[in-house]
Amino acid sequence: MAVRIQFTTLLIRIDRLLAVAPDGVAAITARWSPSWRDEHLLAVAFMDMGARDLAAELEAMGLVLRDTSTGQRVWQDIAVVDYYDGPTLPCAWLECDVASHVAWLAGTVPGPVAGPEHEHEEAPVRISPDKFQQLLQSQHPHLFAPPAAPAEPSRSGRTRPGEHEAVLLPLTQQIAAELLNIIPLSAKIDTIVFIAHFPRPGEVVKAGVVLHDIDGELRSMTLPPLTSETRRLLEQLSRYDSGNRLTSIEIKIAGDGRVTTDFGIAPPKSPEELEDLLRRRFGSIPTARAPRPPAPTGFFGKLKAMFGAGPRVTLHPQPSLRHIPPQEPLSLFLDPLNGIQEGWDHEPPPAGAAANAASAAGGAPAFDLAALHGLEAQRVAGTPAPRPAAFTPTGPQLVVPAQDGLLAAEARGFHRTALAEFHRERPDLRFDAGEERLVRDLGPLGELHFTAWNGHLNRADLYVKGLPSLDDLLARLQPVLAALGGLGPVTCALGSRSPAGITDPQPVTYDELRRYLVPDSPFGTKVYPCWLLGAPPHTKVSLDLGCGLPDNRPAFSYLVTIAHI
What we know:
Oligomer: single chain
Strand content: 15-25%
Largest sheet: 8 strands, antiparallel
Strand order of the largest sheet: 18-19-20-21-25-24-23-22
Number of helices: 15
């Protein structure tokens, strides 16, 4: 038999996969799709760079991807085949018909072709880039006319979209891979945190911690010494040229392989400040090195150790790295501020003859920019938006009891302190290393998450989502309101920006919630924000009610936030 090639297809020799993992075929087909097989080859097709992730997983299972013993890179246990060009490296055990996009094990007879139900579209006619340019220029000469002078000069310092990412992300990905290679395999990794600050180009201040599991308990240890390649990459990052100089990076590797990188332009910290930051964040976790095999004792113990039969420790395979891209474009803070061009400071050109005449006569522009600025100033000032005149809140309201509740006690005890110190004061809290937060299980209310900024406690959240109806939300709110007891009345915050903008309670009624919380968009969550006016000084307590249509199903949620302001 033979297998069909679609897009970029990764082929695995089944006999070699079964040799390292008897259930390997079932495991791969369960986790990766689309896939198909014949009696010799297992094929997995990709339209993106996912083949690299699968290859890393196969290598971790024990397969050898490439062989360079002859001085030439060739495929050994797997082969990556391109739809148009065939194998991307030489492969002695594979035969491929590029014209019909079929491959089979060398030495076997290709018979029926195994493949997906939907076949790849036929390959288009391919021409060289030079020929394509000639055809385009002859058929569309206006596209090659000299460009007209821009209406206004472009601002200096701007970069093209993705330009910073194209340079910085490959460097941080290489650093993450180097970090993973220096961790002993006897450490069951929970989280790796690595921070580097760049006081000056070419100068690097660094610190790191490894959180690992020993017999079900979380332990921390200092990151082992960096490789020379890591130091070279860090120096290259420190010299990166941008409008706002890159001064720091923080790389986090989770136990499941997820890798995130945060880039910073704030004033860099000294080595002492960096160590203090890690102490505030992770100082509550006991320290312990990775397990080591016990030293052999006695003559027979040393004899066994000489022949590799002595005491051993459990070795854990390294996770396959999956890099998560930054949520915000790097140009947002690496470009100088005067290089960001949003286009909001220009009025749109008048359209039509009437508009031209009005403009020539000094008439009104297409929209009143001054009125827009006035509305924005009113919003920033915290002036609440007027309610519709046709609606008057009536009926039952959201009421917080006067007796102190569980969350009221948390709000009154909320203060800015080091996260590690807070953990030592509160042994009832569980540390979530991946998210760097402390967690308390409140049963039917959900999980209370304590988070920090710059190592200091600044916020607690209670978030429950995915409720199927507003009635379910209102039923779940009753114990939440009781837990908020003693923090004063709930007040509507529609149209307001901060609690300081409201001095008199505005009741929140059930009928108003039914009128407003209608899930009408699958692209976002509609939020009805509320505040509790009895919050302690320098603390804001809010209750946000939300709804949306993810996956075309109604989903209601509530979020309680206790924030230090």
